[in-house]
């Protein structure tokens, strides 16, 4: 009888520890599903990605954004961070006077010519499938408060982290 009680106690304790571990991990990592084709070829409709929550985005990172303008969650690539100067001309993007080498984009894209400086606490984001993406060209600069996390997997195959 003592062994059964001890065994039940161990099972309950293991379940409790598993629940605590899951809650702890969910504060740092989440899963997200890709909706749409704006990040092709790196990410496709239905892909499941691991998102590291609460990270400060860097240039090249693919991030999850809770867009207040679109009223939905989107996934885009960070092209520039606060203080960066973005210059666009003849289909090329320059960040801080260096041409951005973008091997991950799907096809040549349309982009208005212009010069922008990313304001504090903001990022400039674009989809990899530029001709089919609503991104900073439409939404403007994205406040860091709307960036919920950085995609950890599977972006390694096409640049980013």
Describe this structure in words.
It is built from 2 helices and 11 strands. With 161 residues, the protein is of the alpha+beta class. The strands form 2 sheets. It has a 7-stranded antiparallel beta sheet. A 4-stranded antiparallel beta sheet has the order 7-6-5-8, with no helix packed on it. It is elongated, with a radius of gyration of 20 Å. Helix content is 18%, strand content 35%. The C terminus is likely disordered.
Give a summary of the structure in a few sentences.
The chain is of the alpha+beta class. It has two helices and eleven strands; from the N terminus they run αβββββββββαββ.
How is this fold's topology laid out?
Layout: H1 2-26, E1 29-33, E2 48-53, E3 62-67, E4 72-81, E5 85-89, E6 92-95, E7 98-99, E8 114-117, E9 122-126, H2 136-139, E10 142-143, E11 147-153
Antiparallel strand pairs: 1-2, 2-11, 3-4, 3-11, 4-9, 5-6, 5-8, 6-7, 9-10
Low-confidence stretches: 155-161
Strand order in the sheet with the most strands: 1-2-11-3-4-9-10
Helix content: 10-25%
Strand portion: 25-35%
Cα end-to-end separation:
55 Å
Radius of gyration: 20 Å
Q: List the helices and strands in order.
A: HEEEEEEEEEHEE
Helix and strand composition category: alpha+beta
- Average of the residue pLDDT scores: 86
Mass-distribution shape: elongated
Helical region count?
Answer: 2
Tally the beta strands: 11
Largest sheet: 7 strands, antiparallel
């Amino acid at each position: 009888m003592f062994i059964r009680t001890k065994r039940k106690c161990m099972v309950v304790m293991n379940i409790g520890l598993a629940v605590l571990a899951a809650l702890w991990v969910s504060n740092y990592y989440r899963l997200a599903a890709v909706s749409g084709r704006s990040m092709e070829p790196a990410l496709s409709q239905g892909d499941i990605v691991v998102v590291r929550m609460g990270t400060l985005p860097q240039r090249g990172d693919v991030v999850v954004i809770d867009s207040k303008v679109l009223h939905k969650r989107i996934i885009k690539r960070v092209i520039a961070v606060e203080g960066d100067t973005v210059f666009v001309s003849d289909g090329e993007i320059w960040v801080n006077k260096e041409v951005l080498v973008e091997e991950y984009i799907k096809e040549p894209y349309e982009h208005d010519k212009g010069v922008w400086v990313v304001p504090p606490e903001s990022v400039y984001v674009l989809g990899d499938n530029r001709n089919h993406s609503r991104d900073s060209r439409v939404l403007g600069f994205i406040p860091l408060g709307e960036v919920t996390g950085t995609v950890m997997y599977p972006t390694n195959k096409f640049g980013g982290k």
